[in-house]
Amino acid sequence: MAETGKDISRAAKLLVAGHLVAIPTETVYGLSANALNEQAVLKIFEVKNRPHFDPLIVHVHQKKAVNKYAVLEDARLIALADAFWPGPLTLLLPKKGNISDLITSGLPQVAIRVPNHALTLELIKSINLPLAAPSANPFGYVSPTTPTHVEKQLGAKIPYILDGGSCNIGLESTIVGIEDNKVCIFRLGGLSLEAIEKVCGPVERRVNNSSNPKAPGQLQSHYAPKKPLIIGDIEELVKKNISKKTAILCFGNKIYSHHKNVVIFNLSARADVEEAALNLFKYLRLADESEAELVICEKIPEHGLGRAINDRLQRAATR
Ligand code: TXA
Ligand code: MG
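A: This is the predicted complex of the input protein with threonylcarbamoyladenylate.
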């Protein structure tokens, strides 16, 4: 079992000594290591069982620190950083020599962000080191949004979980970069497309769907519970699977209690996409832990964080 607590100096000592610490952010919990220590970064891949072709996000405590590790010169990306950091925005930037190929999987750009969580910002500031941190879950599984989620899956493999409570967004950061001189979104996430476009005008979605992508967070099958998950019309799917124990993941003011054999998780009864984002990973985990053999869900409206939720559901459904 990992120790769980709010002791920043304990977390700091462990990180400086090359150990891993789970850290809270506003999006999801991260599994962090000193980004400048290759041995420590290697441990992240081992503990997560993560393939080395999947690059890591580097976390710093303020925009000014970015220039030590990457080149932030594009005016559009600077405007996004000014508008949304600290917050759920990750920028893809040309890397500097002190960022190893291990972190970027050999790519010339590094993913970097300033997370919005007081404990983690204080931690990074106190050690004055960048933290490499993927989501703190085994590779391919649903991201953790509470210390308990981290403990259940990685507790035996790490010494410390910094307890910052439940994440208040619940979806990973939105990844943005420049390609062909256009601002592009590479992963939909906790910052909406609308919010980004307000700052820098129309952006392109280069959300990769191939099974061998450059940015592996975009693997077709990812963010997945262990149980099969199907997306569609809930009433129809329940009827088709009448003999099976089913978990329903729904949205809005719906009543499915007339069905037998089902356990119901409503992502947001008041049809609020942000509330649904907060509940998504928690409910996917509960559905996985329930007696259900099958998870049935519906698409939610394609606006705001709804797009990122549908993206995660689609990847969770793909096997
Ligand atoms: O909200 C988040 O982004 C969380 C918290 C902990 O910060 N982190 C997170 O990390 O979701 P992870 O490793 O689960 O997903 C990061 C994804 C990678 O899978 C990859 O697709 C993309 O970011 N990525 C990282 N570095 C990249 C790079 N140099 N070029 C392209 N994509 C990159
Ligand atoms: Mg992840």
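The radius of gyration is 19 Å. Residues 17 and 40 are 9 Å apart (CA to CA).
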